[in-house]
Amino acid sequence: MFQFPARLVGAAVALTLAAANPVLGQQLELKLMAPAAPGGGWDQTARSMQQALVASGVARSVQVTNVPGAGGSVGIAQFVNGAKGDGNQMMVNGFVMVGALAMNKSPVTLEQVTPIARLTEEIQVIVVPANSPIKTAQDLAAAVKADIAKVTFAGGSAGGVDHVMAALFAGAVGADAKKINYIPFSGGGESLAAILGGKVTAGISGLSEYEGQIKSGKLRAIGVTSEKRIAGSDIPTFKEQGIDLVIANWRSVVAPPGITPEQKKTLSDAVEKMVKSDAWKEVLKQKGWEDAYLGGDAFADFLKKETTRVTDVLKSVGLIKS
Fold first, then answer.
1. Measured between alpha carbons, how far is residue 224 from residues 44, 127, 161, 205, 240 in Å?
2. Where residue 73 falls among pLDDT bands split at 50, 70, 90?
3. Do 235 and 259 share a domain, yes or no?
4. Would you say residue 321 lies in a domain?
5. Per the domain annotation, does 246 fall within a domain?
6. Which SS3 state, helix, strand or coil, does residue 167 take?
7. Single residue among 241, 273, 301 that ends a domain in this structure
8. What integer is the mean pLDDT of 56-80?
9. Are 300 and 204 in a shared domain?
10. Mind listing the pLDDT tens digit for each residue in 235-286?
11. Which ranges of 65-203 would DSSP assign to H, the alpha helix?
């Protein structure tokens, strides 16, 4: 019986797979920018994507570059101006960039990039020392309404997600957000020391930052910013305590301006395939990140609304002048 040469059979299989899955057939060669220094959240996201894109068979190679500076303002400027029309490039960004661009009065904005997908999010938490008289979110609300200047919040950089959350908390309980006493720290270790030492009233951060101290009993978590309680956790949400506060530190990926609809679809399909892969699910498990995948027009709409919300909050606390 006649047998096809092995190389022809292999070629036929490859063509069949390529037809069934154009992204897999193309075996993309991508460049991915992390607009921050190595080691941070955006860098970790970019390098995790690099691993998962290759492991899932979406990309043949992914080159990660770091362009740090000004909360992502330097990176996005280089990305928008230097990668225009390049359908093989993407950039990681997130909540922090929204505030940084507004505060730095950047001539380049997120309106200029091509939205691809939101990837992950981390729920925020407010903690107090274990010996604090504040037991619940309503206790903190009462203190803020009584004398907001006496309530000190420790968190990350000015204008970042922690700062925005402090302002949203004040507004949600009927206090003047412009009067919040927010103390920014450059690192989680410094803010933790201030909280444990009683130097501040409360601390704000991503839940994973203080999870160890919460479990050990050194810190008391008075509320998380998710819509519903996190599975397996006994920490109440702010919403169930009567305070309308929902916020998350999200991270996403975007493409340059000027790409074609076909190029956008290729990148969108690649990212969607990646987030469904076992390799990406393992990343989420190892990093403790929440899956927050949102693609297409829904993500573009989310980005617009989030930009408006964050900008309005930063104006309310005087970090952006109207």
1. 24, 9, 14, 10, 10
2. very high
3. no
4. no
5. no
6. helix
7. 241
8. 96
9. no
10. 999 999 999 999 999 999 999 999 999 999 999 999 999 999 999 999 999 8
11. 73-82, 95-103, 137-146, 161-172, 188-196
